What does this fold into?
Amino acid sequence: MPQLNVKVADTAPDEPALTAYDQEHAVTYARLLDAEADNADWREVAHIVLHIDPTTEPERAQRAFESHLARAKWMARHGYRHLLREGRPGSKT
It folds into this structure.
């Protein structure tokens, strides 16, 4: 079950399949996509959503933000299919 404030890795997965990390961070990905749609500053998003202070860890914050946003976009384009497949009764992955 996705949770609101889970700890994030320095970089998001980049595998061509849905991972346990993706499932755990689905809410994080949605929040990143919402922030992008609102033209939010990446530093604010890194601080609020990813819980990484861009003032004290600028490189880590930017790397985490960029990789998680890229993964969020992948999820929106492709990964959701894996979630839908897993959510069907009797489906196998």
